[in-house]
Amino acid sequence: MKKLKMSKLKVIPEKSLTNNSRIVGLLAQLEKINAESSESDTARYVTSKILHLAQSQEKTRREMTAKGSTGMEILLSTLENTKDLQTTLNILSILVELVSAGGGRRVSFLVTKGGSQILLQLLMNASKESPPHEELMVQIHSILAKIGPKDKKFGVKARINGALNITLNLVKQNLQNHRLVLPCLQLLRVYSANSVNSVSLGKNGVVELMFKIIGPFSKKNSSLIKVALDTLAALLKSKTNARRAVDRGYVQVLLTIYVDWHRHDNRHRNMLIRKGILQSLKSVTNIKLGRKAFIDANGMKILYNTSQECLAVRTLDPLVNTSSLIMRKCFPKNRLPLPTIKSSFHFQLPVIPVTGPVAQLYSLPPEVDDVVDESDDNDDIDVEAENETENEDDLDQNFKDYDLISKEPKPFVFEGKVRGPIVVPTAGEETSGNSGSLGKVVMKENIPSRGDEGEKKSTFMDLAKENIKDDRTLQQQPAPGFTAETKKDCSLPLTVLTCAKACPHMAACGNVLFEGRTVQLGKLCCTGVETEDEDTESNSSVEQASVEVPDGPTLHDPDLYIEIVKNTKSVPEYSEVAYPDYFGHIPPPFKEPILERPYGVQRTKIAQDIERLIHQSDIIDRVVYDLDNPNYAIPEEGDILKFNSKFESGNLRKVIQIRKNEYDLILNSDINSNHYHQWFYFEVSGMRLGVAYRFNIINCEKSNSQFNYGMQPLMYSVQEALNGRPWWIRMGIDICYYKNHFSRSSVAAGGQKGKSYYTITFTVNFPHKDDVCYFAYHYPYTYSTLQMHLQKLESAHNPQQIYFRKDVLCETLSGNTCPLVTITAMPESNYYEHLCQFRNRPYVFLSARVHPGETNASWVMKGTLEYLMSNNPTAQSLRESYIFKIVPMLNPDGVINGNHRCSLSGEDLNRQWQSPNPDLHPTIYHAKGLLQYLAAVKRLPLVYCDYHGHSRKKNVFMYGCSIKETVWRTNDNATSCDVVEDTGYRTLPKILSHIAPAFCMSSCSFVVEKSKESTARVVVWREIGVQRSYTMESTLCGCDQGKYKGLQIGTRELEEMGAKFCVGLLRLKRLTSPLEYNLPSSLLDFENDLIESSCKVTSPTTYVLDEDEPRFLEEVDYSAESNDELDIELAENVGDYEPSAQEEVLSDSELSRTYLP
């Protein structure tokens, strides 16, 4: 029975009040008194009774603020009309009780009943008495301070009523009366939320007044000081007030007070006061003058030292985080140490676009400094608005002039071709004077040498090809005229190929002797070797340059790769080959989990950045690699790392040594562009064992990255490869991605001023001394690798069974061919019906790698191509079902030259599909033309899919096109019910979610956004008419669901996804025309269930936001703009996730906002 009563109580709405309720009777009596203007004694008595009930019973408070109740109106009406002081005080006390216990809803209820205006009027009337009644003023201010934040017009109402000066004067006249001053300060803080009020109060001396209240450490009046600091922080958000505070030297005062509280608050009981001081400093440093005053007052060192002392106590994290934010804001904005933000490489376009970023780039006068703007600060203009923001570039012009002297010996002049030889680096020991450098194997025959008059040609050095096995078990198979030698004293045996006969011309040339290009050769590359090498084992292994994958023949052939590279045209005319591309990559035989992020790692990295300013003498600031100055010199010290990126797909522009083992790296812009820095691929050598090297890539542009959510960069060790482990592995610790103090010019930021670059930082302990290692954003896949794979596939296939044709779709801007592959099954015979079936198979059109930095798309495409060319019976069924037209690399030039996003035209090719220019966008123009041709001859592809990579989300997923779901999303006038649409566009993604472990249906979206209208997916759907037109996005990081949950993605999983996509196409065929297949009925039933379930399109009430990651603790602070005026309560708001603004130019390849199925 009790349970029944309780449940009944719960469901009774507040508005159904009982007639015999005491409070109803009292309110009715009060209403009657108002109507009759009765004696004040009765009103005093009734209100005191109501107050007693309100104080003692939650039921009473609930009844008075229920929706159907008139209690609030009666109280406010009495308050407005009564002349009796005690009645007024009683009603104010009742209102305080109501709003104190009821949370935001009751406060809002009071506001909707006109409470703000009545109470402000009461304040005006009360102020006319001399002196004002203290208790009355305390009560009025207390309640106004509570309801003000809930009234959007409160600031304006208070100003019009003249309440600002009343409250301010009360504080001035009663500074020692803390009971009165406290609610007045609380109300001043509410007033100050309105910037016009803030300026008005400032002119009347409110800032100076606050500094009379706050002061050094004291055990008394802590609550008063806390409120005064909160009020001050709100006031100082006004630039006018902030300038006033700076002019009066208050920045120094705040720092002094902060240090005093920091020193004396040993038990950390006054953390809120300490944070209040920091919030005031945060507000005042929003202006340039404030930042200068902060620097001049030694604020950086003060906050750095105090925050370091707070690190040991976890509860003080809000202080550390706010201090860090202030220091980062005040850190002088630096320009990147570059002559220009445009690419180091120039390619002259055949046609200059009339409009757009490329046109602007070409129209810039040569003398314009595009790295940074002279000044973006508007501090001198005294303009206040409701929502002020300030963009600034507080420039630090004190840059050192770097000594740029020759790094490499001047190249010899040779006869022959202009292009240099193809060079493959190997990890080997150097001559004693240059022990940290790498050796290189030259992969070109008959290279003329001028080192010796009698010797016309140097001998070609080759690598014998053998299976990778343990060196001890492998028999030597040297190339003709060569011996393989291995150093005994190396920590890992290094296979070295040396000439069988002496080559004196090699030594005479100082190992720099190949046509037209500087090439450094390690001493072990030829027989000019020292005697200590003579006793090496003669039967050591010759490592294989191509590795057999266990489950099938390899597509990698290093000799073929070298031949292809010779014909690959790059803008910088590369003549070196990166070892991983030459030697090949096989997936490692172990799992690589998503990295757990240690607590506070980002804060620590930023503190180290701040130390650069505080302890400038510790900074080396030495250029050790520079594309813009080819004659720079590498310091000869053995403990300095050597860098290189002069090979296909390489991207590294400049390296500066910051500390002994810390380096800042700057990436090159895409050619004919001044931004898109994200892809990197570079070589490092000369490392030592047991040393933690920190690398900071300092000019990234995306506002967030999976590096903040467990992704690691990739590393390839040459010594590991020579020892039978030729694979890229995830490497690095203490990884994070955060906004730094280098500012983008308005030219670089698309007209916006004061935007910052971002840093990827990671720390590496190398596995071997003097190794040659490569780092990459993701698994590299070069244009030459693609051409090699296609040639190997072509040569290995069975022409009686598989129809394989490789055509040239077109030539790119720099003269490289864009391959077009056709794959299907050969007809069963020359009979008419077999030929008809052959010709009438539906088309599937696939493309990939329109964005060069999305190398994962090429690995998925490799999986697709290998599966289609395999002997698998399912693959044969697939070939018999479809004709595949595949453009595996839509942007060869971008891939070759190490671009992240663009082609040589400086434009994102996936935004050119609506009207591609044949001269600037030939691959898109001809791919679209081929699709238009297929449509014209009534052979519209059944499926179009463009493979991409996604930098901010996990898993693999698809974007499709749906009118109906777009209508839902855009809230168009047409209702979704009016749109009739075949939901078959969902079938293929649904199939893939069942068969591909990495695929995630809940991340898929079928919305067409305006910003994506010129992408391949949307144009092929809208213009060509392919209903199943998709973008398939693969994560750069890993998976958070399914079989691979918690693991970083590798090439094995990416290739598997490409193969599973093919299986999905076969299932799609079976579902759309099951009669052609003699399938078991149970399988057909299952697949029919699948299609039916996939077509039940649910209303998209739930969707995933742009970044489908939860906020990590530090993101709120460190991803915020430096002049962000939000009060960041890290400890309180960890769980509150709000999506960041969608990136503009650097948005990922497709829409990140998705529907759940």
UniProtKB/TrEMBL annotation:
Classification via CDD domains: M14_Nna1 (cd06906)
Location(s) in or outside the cell: Cytoplasm, Cytosol; Mitochondrion; Nucleus
Enzyme class of the recorded protein, top EC level: hydrolase
Molecular function as annotated in GO: metallocarboxypeptidase activity; zinc ion binding
GO CC, alphabetical: cytosol; mitochondrion; nucleus
Gene3D superfamilies according to UniProt: 2.60.40.3120, Leucine-rich Repeat Variant (1.25.10.10), Zn peptidases (3.40.630.10)
E.C. no: 3.4.17.24
Cofactor: Zn(2+)
Keywords, alphabetical: Carboxypeptidase, Cytoplasm, Hydrolase, Metal-binding, Metalloprotease, Mitochondrion, Nucleus, Protease, Zinc
Main location: cytoplasm
Similarity comment text for this entry: Belongs to the peptidase M14 family.
Function per UniProt: Metallocarboxypeptidase that mediates protein deglutamylation of tubulin and non-tubulin target proteins. Catalyzes the removal of polyglutamate side chains present on the gamma-carboxyl group of glutamate residues within the C-terminal tail of alpha- and beta-tubulin. Specifically cleaves tubulin long-side-chains, while it is not able to remove the branching point glutamate. Also catalyzes the removal of polyglutamate residues from the carboxy-terminus of alpha-tubulin as well as non-tubulin proteins such as MYLK.
Protein name (Swiss-Prot/TrEMBL): Cytosolic carboxypeptidase 1
Source taxonomy: Eukaryota, Metazoa, Chordata, Craniata, Vertebrata
Gene that produces this protein: AGTPBP1
